[in-house]
Amino acid sequence: MPKRLYARSLIIVIAPMILLQSVIAFVFMERHWQMVTQRLSQAVTRDIAAIIDMIETYPQEEEIAQVIRIAQERLALKIDLMPPDPLPAPAPKPFFSILDQTLSEEITRQINRPFWIDTVGNSNIVEIRIQLENSVLRVFARRSQAYASNTHIFLLWMVGTSLVLLTIAIAFLRNQIRPILQLAEAAESFGKGRPMPSDFRPRGAEEVRRAGLAFIQMRERIEKQIEQRTAMLTGVSHDLRTILTRFKLQLALASPKADIEALDQDVEDMRLMLEGYLSFARGEVMEDPGSFDLAAYFEKLTEEARLRKRKLRTSLSGSSKAYVRPNAFNRLLDNIIGNAFRYAKNVHVDARYSMGSLVITVDDDGPGIPPEKREHVFKPFVRLDDARNQDKSGTGLGLSIARDIARSHGGDIMLEDSPLGGLRAVIRVPA
Ligand SMILES: Nc1ncnc2c1ncn2[C@@H]1O[C@H](COP(=O)(O)OP(=O)(O)OP(=O)(O)O)[C@@H](O)[C@H]1O
Ligand SMILES: [Mg+2]
User: Which pairing describes strands 136-142 and 125-131: parallel, antiparallel, or unpaired?
Assistant: First the structure.
């Protein structure tokens, strides 16, 4: 069964048509065509049998001349008597000829004398020779007298009209399927976080239009929801940050005591958390897709590695320009590679295109993440214990932001074991 809707619908149209035509053609050939030919052949043979009887009953020259005249005028059979030479050898039988077969059968059945027929030679005329007692009777009959000859025209009409029907069906199907394809394209590009094709409008059959409309409404709802959530997050973080700043100021003014220091640290942690929230919210703001230069980014990265005294190796195969939302994608890579820089010494970043996706693999030789925690670390504010001990800064939002961005592009991030010994992060987004 073909995969495409178009091919499938064509089969749904064509298969019954072919079946119907085969049945009709078979029944028609079998019953009608053969039957009519048989009846016609029977009638011609009957006439010939009558002529033979007459010739044998009235064997005088002038009587035979009368018989010949009557046969010519009334029966449309041109006959003459030939000397009793032996009949010629049977002509080669045509491969498929109903006429030859039925006529031979009828002559054998009704006349039962040696005979010779030629249904092939002259196209419109059939020649029959029959051995009589002391002569040979030669009969010329019109082919159409003995044969239902316009059958092929019927078949031609049948095949012709079905071809016309098929052409019409193809044209209509194409028009019906186009709106479905457009809907699929629009949904696909929405899934990849790209703008919808500008000319998208629900079209076509009612069901397809309904699906298109539902899609548009769903898209608007999702966008509104994201907008609302982002606005709230930004608002709350912002307000709290203002209060926190005031709080910090008051702490600084208060008289220095031992327990204030701990309080100060908590306030600082809270501030960092709010910053994290804000940057998370910023990532949600829809940005237009554009071109992101991987080579330039890698250059910047090399500089950063040098400053942070990390060993970095980058490789890029395929186009340097990726079609993504540049700022968001930059943040995604910063978060993942930033983690590698933070938790490891040697980092290897590889970018390549495979199966319609841009695949960026980030390997490091750090402590890695045990397989059972690899899903867990993607949750907001999750930091593993050793990371917390190693390094106080960081909120645990990095991976969740990164995955969010990858998914909004229609891609994802996977964590695996790295051949370098640490963690491997595989970022995959549609190219
Ligand atoms: N390359 C890595 N090697 C080992 N552990 C990692 C690596 N990347 C992330 N982790 C672990 O996953 C946790 C979550 O990472 P995530 O990037 O979300 O937060 P973070 O780096 O701690 O803080 P932030 O990125 O918000 O500054 C980290 O705390 C760390 O324990
Ligand atoms: Mg991080």
Answer: antiparallel
Q: How far is CA 100 from CA 108, 114, 349, in A?
A: 12, 15, 83
So what's the pLDDT on residue 285? 62
From 377, 395, 397, 403, give the residue whose CB has the most ligand 1 atoms within 8 Å, as the site to mutate: 377
Say what the pTM is.
0.60
Q: Which residues in the chain show pLDDT less than 50?
A: none
Alpha-carbon dihedral angle through residues 211, 212, 213, 214, given to the nearest 10 degrees = 50
Q: How far apart are CA 306 and CA 299, in angstroms?
A: 11
Determine the pLDDT at residue 15: 92
Question: How much is the pLDDT for 226?
Answer: 84
In sequence order, which residues have a C-beta less than 8 Å from that of residue 237 and are 6 or more positions away?
274, 277, 278, 281
* The two structure tokens encoding residue 222: 């999702």
Q: State the helix-helix crossing angle for 151-191 and 206-253, rounded to 10 degrees.
A: 10
Cβ–Cβ under 8 Å, residues 413 and 402: yes
The pLDDT of residue 340:
93
Q: What is the pLDDT of residue 122?
A: 60
The set of protein residues with a Cβ atom below 6 angstroms from ligand 1 is: 276, 335, 339-340, 343-344, 364, 366-369, 377, 382-384, 387, 394-399, 422-423
- Amino acid letter, 12: I
Query: Backbone phi, then psi, for 415, in 5-degree steps?
Result: -105, 135
pLDDT at 386: 66
Q: Which residues pair with 321 in a beta bridge?
A: 293
Q: How far is the CA of 228 from the centre of ligand 2 (A)?
A: 26
Buried/exposed 218-251: b ≥16 CB within 10 Å, e otherwise: eeeeeeeeeeeebeebbeebeebbeebeebbeee
Alpha carbon of 399 to ligand 1 centroid (Å)? 7
